Amino acid sequence: MLILALGTLNSCSEEVNENPLLATNVDPSFTITPVAGEVNTYMLTSQIKGVIDSYWDIGYGPYLGKMTEKIVLPDAGTYTVKHIAVGAGGASADVSHPIVVETSDPAKPNLVKGGFFNNAADIAQWTSAKLSPTGAAFWSFETGSATIHSAGGGAQEGIYQAIDVVKDKEYTIDMLVSSPSGSDETWFEVYAGKTVPVDGVEYKDNKVMGLSTWDGCAKSAFLGRLSIVGCVKNDRTASVSNVVKFDTTGKIYLVIRSGGSGNKFTKDGITIGRIEMRAK
Q1: What's the superkingdom here (predicted)?
Q2: Structural domain includes residue 106
Q3: 111 belongs to a structural domain
Q4: What is the pLDDT of residues 196-235, one digit of tens each?
Q5: What domain range is 275 assigned to?
Q6: How far is CA 183 from CA 52, 60, 258, in A?
Q7: CB 253 within 8 A of CB 162
Q8: Residue 41: exposure state from Cβ atoms within 10 A (0-12, 13-18, ≥19)
Q9: pTM surpassing 0.85?
Q10: Cβ-based burial of 88 (10 A; exposed 0-12, middle 13-18, buried ≥19)
Q11: Considering its fold, how many domains does the chain have in total?
């Protein structure tokens, strides 16, 4: 088993001041170890001296993890892994290193087409739900992302696509979500239902996950995986979960819809990218 010792203080950034309660020389170095017998799976291990919390970022924004964090990278490619180490008084330092994944895991392909919004062909994989005929709510697309905008007052818009699934197999759904400003009276919901979407009709079949200011998330700026920053409960499990399973083999519809009440939808919109649905 190859262990790569990575990271030195010379390659990281630090925040230092004269507060005697604030740690100095926080060391964010960590090792990357391929996990034997598991495809494209890696163990990230922080050195622990002087480190209180470890935050990790593998392309979906930083999240609070463990000193020893297990990650799975199903697709071939080069990934930048960042470790943000936090010491006494909130002092922090970070270091980043690449992981090169040579071959995709054939058992866990991404079933979402165009979920990374890399080009016009990706965007064309999505169909508008036509929930906002006046244009008070709409999606805009950039390379790598899509953003939902709403004028509030109940205005909402959705996008969707059909996906083939297998009976009784478990799948996970996730995506990168962000907004630089807080929201009020705002919802963002993800569905995976067997009902065929109908133009202009609000989709309600099998809510999986989401954001909701009524449930306590998206009230301030956020960046991360929806499975981490979201707070909307899964219809099937009655808990916050991104796992889905279906009782028949065939097509389901991945539907993403969002909007706001009053005039309170976030002024910057909610941006999504890296949408994934994979066998668990």
Answers
A1: Bacteria
A2: no
A3: no
A4: 999 999 999 999 999 999 999 999 999 999 999 999 999 9
A5: 120-279
A6: 31, 20, 12
A7: yes
A8: middle
A9: yes
A10: middle
A11: 2
- Judgement on whether residues 92 and 125 belong to the same structural domain of the protein: no
The residue from 101, 136, 156 where one domain ends is 101
**145 and 93 belong to one structural domain:** no
Q: CA-CA distance, 166 to 254, in Å (whole number)?
A: 15
- Same-domain check for residues 249 and 144: yes
> What are the CA-CA distances from residue 2 to residues 8, 34, 152, 240 (Å)?
19, 7, 53, 36
**What SS3 class is residue 23?**
coil
- DSSP letters spanning 43-74: EEEE--TT-SEEEEESSS--EEE-SEEEEE--
Q: Are residues 170 and 258 in the same domain?
A: yes
Residue 52 maps to a domain? yes
Alpha helices for 137-274 (secondary structure H): 226-229
The tens digit of pLDDT for each residue in 81-127 reads 999 999 999 999 999 999 999 999 999 999 999 999 999 999 999 99
**Cα 140 from Cα 147, distance rounded (Å):** 5
* CATH number assigned to the domain comprising residue 63: 2.60.40.10
Do both 91 and 154 map to the same domain?
no
Report the alpha-carbon distance of residue 213 to residue 182 in Å, rounded: 9
Q: Which two tokens stand for residue 244?
A: 């889905």
Note the residue count of the chain.
Answer: 280
